[in-house]
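Listing S7. Sequence submitted for prediction.
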Amino acid sequence: MSHNERLQRFQAAVAGRADLIYLPHSADLEYLTGVPRDIPNYGAVIHPGAWLEGVWMTPARPPILLLPRMSAEFGGLNRLSNIDIRVLGDWDDPAALVRDIVRGFQLPERPLVAISDHTTGETVVNLQRILPDAVFISATDLLRPLRVIKSEDEIAVMRRAGQITEAAFADVLKQLKPGMTELDLISEVDYQLRRHGSLGPSFTTSLYNSGPNHPLLFGQRLATWPRVLTPPVSVLFDFGAVHEGYCYDYGRTVSFGAPSAEQVRVHQLVMESQRAGIAALRAGSATTSQVDAAARQVIADAGYGEAFRHRLGHAIGMDVHEPPFLTAGDETPLQEGMLFTIEPSITQFNSFSARVEDVVVARPGGGEPLTSGYQELIVIE
């Protein structure tokens, strides 16, 4: 489906539900128009008038992309030819430009304004000044029913993202040796992702490593990155590639040193749990919570239930995490074409851990994994 077809479907779906739609740079915007996102920054990088940056449209009017000059020129967005672009000069008044655009849309006195969930507070405050009687609703919620079901073309793009991810992992494995630090591994993963054609990691590449002499630490990157990986230790990878705007999410487990019986057992349980979750991902006959329960039961029955500390998975596509979630309490019926991560784990703070993760398509007969390599515990000695 082309971006123009997506846009037409969305505009038809929101007719009568919104009078004005605003989408900043986000997956929502790229999904509808193809306006690309760049590599994200840790700190905010803004230009004069940045609050207006994004697409403004109505259910009946084509989108207008408003850009500060720096974004248009240095961001390369002025090269786009499939969309009406208006550029704000460095010393121009952004509110005047938005007023001019909104006036041309001929909105009602009390307009319903649909804004992306990624809209900044600054944009909302300025819109309230321009449209004081506006009522704000979520454009992301209106768009979600279209984004949650992936076409076969989208699935093919995600499959390619998986191939890039797994090819990068194959080359990472060639570099692994005991004595490396966690930062060495993360740096190698990020390099290999780009080397194989990814814009960069689809999220912050993460490791969850543990062993009897290597305690598991969550969320302390500056403390864990310098740690030397000395056997025996379980090394748990969590990373993914970006391809044509779509995000992959992948995980495997490596043993530095010959694995103990405990390492082997934990890894086998995680793989059995994933197989159960994939089999349960039946479009048309299961819900998201049922899939989580099927995979979780394997680990709970083996006595490791408390070590499975998170939901089984999440929907994925142009964002790494998308609703719905494979978790207790989420009763979303599965539909064919939904994409989910199936990522069971056993994480132990002072012993061996394991995780696996693949993106899987919901099908009537069960899930179809988009990656399937490295099913055995990988050993580096």
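Caption to Listing S7: primary sequence and predicted structure tokens for the chain studied. The two ends are 48 Å apart (CA to CA). The chain has a mean pLDDT of 96.
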